[in-house]
Amino acid sequence: MSACDPALLDDIRQLHEQIRASVAARLEAAREAGDHELASRPLGWGAGDLTYALDQLADEPLAQCVARVGARRPVVMLAEGPGELRAAPSGPSSQSPLRLIVDPIDGTRPLMLDMRSAWVLTGAAPDRGGDTRLSDIELAVQTELPTTGAAVYHVLIARRGQGATLARHDVATGACLDQRPLRVLPELPLDNGVISFSRYLPPERPLVAELERRFLEAAVPACELDPHLLYDDQYLCTSGQLFLLATGRYRMLADLRGWIGRTRGLANFAVKPYDLASALVFEEAGVPLLDAEGRPFDGPMDLETGLDLVAYANARIRDAFEPHLRAAMASWSGSPS
Length: 337
Fold this sequence. Notes:
The chain contains 9 helices and 15 strands. It has about 325 residues and is an alpha+beta fold. It folds into 2 domains: about 10-180, Fructose-1,6-Bisphosphatase, Chain A, domain 1; about 195-335, 3-Layer(aba) Sandwich (D-Maltodextrin-Binding Protein, domain 2). It has an 8-stranded mixed sheet. Strands 12-11-13-15-14 form a 5-stranded mixed sheet. A two-stranded antiparallel sheet has the order 1-2.
């Protein structure tokens, strides 16, 4: 049975717009006061990650969304920060139980300093309890949280088997300016774009850099790449990176922090399921999404499991780059630590 009743998309869009409005107001207040601490003050650990002042703004909209959806059908929401929220109708419901996974602000750190956009992510799936997986998601929505200098923001929506759409909205009014299907660009050159190996925390940076070096040492001559046209971008926002991949700015994203941690016995952070709550958008757009073993990306719908993600801008780029990545991983994992 489908997880997506006709009102669900409206509920999710309302949630995202409430978060966008609250975040925009806080960032503007911080800008006017010249005090980024109004948005960037650390508050302690929530479910999944460290929570900042900006993250706290999502708590009330999340609770309201669960209440709205729960008035029609049983719902479990798993959200970074507040954790698990539940609601159910007071009487019988003809609709099947629903499970939502939400990242209220993916990319808090760059946005709280008013540097780069963050995104709100939501995926909806039939509730199979602890067995529910990201591959069960039937509806995904991703909404941009722009910086104070932006005039437009983007909204990405996908239903399984029905493709993905990309809409631009006016920041001042929220009105939709235009909308089009979101599909990968098939004719991108292999270079003149970003190849990103995610490396955020100091202990993992030299390890990831060595893996990247091995990859580039093989891929540059084999694929006839111009080294001057290979760019790096450490955008601390997985959904933002995937947006840039699907729209032709990135060529490849390798977030193998979990694999590196397991291989080297390093207690580092890895991408979490809520960071990929909107992965369906990019799957429907034609982005090859893989795990560390080269299998189609998937993972449990929870708040703690560390995952790995390798993604390419299109299938042709995957065919060109993947053999060199696999070889680099094999040689790196066999080298001394």
